[in-house]
Amino acid sequence: MAQRTLEIIVGLFMVAGLAALLFLALQVSGLSPKAAESTYTLYANFNDTGGLTPRGKVSMAGVTVGSIESISLDRETFQARVEMSIHSEVDNIPADSSAVIRTSGLLGEQYIDISIGGDMESLQAGDTFYSTQSAMNLERLISNFASGK
Amino acid sequence: MLDRIASFGRLGLDIVASLGRSGRFLIGVLGGVPRPVTGFPLLIKQIYAVGVLSLAIVVVSGLFIGMVLGLQGYTILSDYGSESAIGQMIALTLVRELGPVVTALLFAGRAGSALTAEIGLMKATEQLSSMEMMGVDPLRRVIAPRLWAGFIAMPVLAVIFSVVGIWGGMLVGVEWLGVFEGSFWGNMQSSVDFLDDVMNGFIKSVVFGFVCAWIAVFQGYDCVPTSAGISSATTKTVVYSSLAVLGLDFVLTAVMFGDF
After folding, report:
1. Cβ contact (<8 Å) for B47 and A20?
2. Domain total for chain A?
3. Rounded to a whole number, what is the distance in Å from the CA of B148 to chain A's nearest CA?
4. Which residues contact residue A136 at a Cβ distance below 8 angstroms, ignoring those fewer than 6 apart?
5. Average pLDDT over every residue of A115-135
6. Which of A77, A135, A144, B203 satisfies CB 3.0 to 4.6 Å to A101 for a cystine?
7. Both A45 and A98 in a single domain?
8. Based on the domain organization, do A51 and A121 belong to the same domain?
9. What distance, in Å, lies between the first and last C-alpha atoms of chain B?
10. pTM value?
11. In terms of residue numbers, what domain contains A30?
């Protein structure tokens, strides 16, 4: 086979590989070209995070406004401290809003929902949510029900 | 009894010696990076031989594996009424594990064995030593382009495998079994992360490509120059590559995805 044809075929092969990688990036992992979105950090303390995991979503009225960065244990209060990064354009979350852990569907993944408060002040970067509501624990619910409390 | 112990010891020494030879061989080859002008056509030819010609088997197996994943995933997930999670299941399985691993196994069988047989035959017919007589370094002229070609072609093949597999899964899940297309892609996009999943799978395939190509060219270069020697070297290539890929996959997965 002529060297030229060979080069073209191999070139097409490499292009196919690049196109496949691009497909994985854009269509499969949903990476948008403006991925380097600026965010700010908020914190929330929970008694029980349940199955919450890093990279989970943070939403407001069902719209994703950020993601969970990390979950760690506060050694003073023995609560879980969740670090969230919120998109910068959502900079007017009222200061008395609360962070609630919810489950999408019956068996779906858990996420943090921010229920809106009414304060005129808004949360600044580095602030902590004042009120939180922990994950619904099915076992505790059932045992409460069984013991009639 | 004593003979048996002695032969056991000899076996161990042989293994260590061949590991040492392969390391020295690798250093010799990596020193011989194909030169931009003279080496490039050789490299292109080898990428064609190990990459483009392996495309058919990779695409066909990718398609069928994706379709099987779609079918199996649907039967299990529909028990829980969450068959829309099929997209993320297929994508994560393919991108993280099956893409790199199955491609590497196919690559070892399709391209690695051919590399070993070709180099082994060159050695048996004394082409390699006559090259040395002419003052051409066979490591640079014959081995290095093949090693680099395997190293370059394998990640490309693995990525194509994953994409074709996802497409096959979509074919079964969406077109045939009627999962809603929006939730298929939506679930996939919300659970697959580019750096954590796609890039880690890509790194795996780079490592596998390097290991498979290294084992293949070394077995060819190191074989006993007889027809029996070539056949046993070809077998060794496939067996060692497969074992190395599966073992390395465990190690890489533990490092990349294990939480510790």
Report:
1. no
2. 2
3. 14
4. A50, A101, A102, A103
5. 84
6. A135
7. yes
8. yes
9. 46
10. 0.75
11. 1-35
Cβ neighbours, 10 Å, residue B110:
17
Window B:36-95, CB contacts with A under 8 Å: 41, 44-45, 47-48, 51-52, 55, 80, 82, 91, 95
A98 within some domain: yes
- What's the rounded mean pLDDT across residues B98-125? 93
As a whole-number percent, the residues of chain B with pLDDT over 70 amount to: 97
Report whether pLDDT(B194) > 70: yes
Q: What is the mean pLDDT of chain B?
A: 88
Q: Is the dihedral of CA B36, B42, B48, B54 positive or negative?
A: negative
Please give the Cα distance from B233 to B211 (Å, whole number): 16
B207–chain A nearest CA distance, Å: 17
CB–CB of B41 and A3 under 8 A? yes
Asked if pLDDT for residue A133 goes beyond 80, the answer is yes
- Residue in B163, B188, B197 nearest the CB of A20: B163
Neighbours of B198 (CB within 10 A): 23
Q: Is the pLDDT of residue A35 over 70?
A: no
What are A133's two structure tokens? 């509501």
Burial per residue of B72-95, b for 16 or more beta-carbon CB atoms within 10 angstroms, e otherwise: ebbeebeeeebbbbbbbbbbbbbb
Q: Does B162 touch chain A (CB under 8 A)?
A: yes
A25-46: average pLDDT = 76
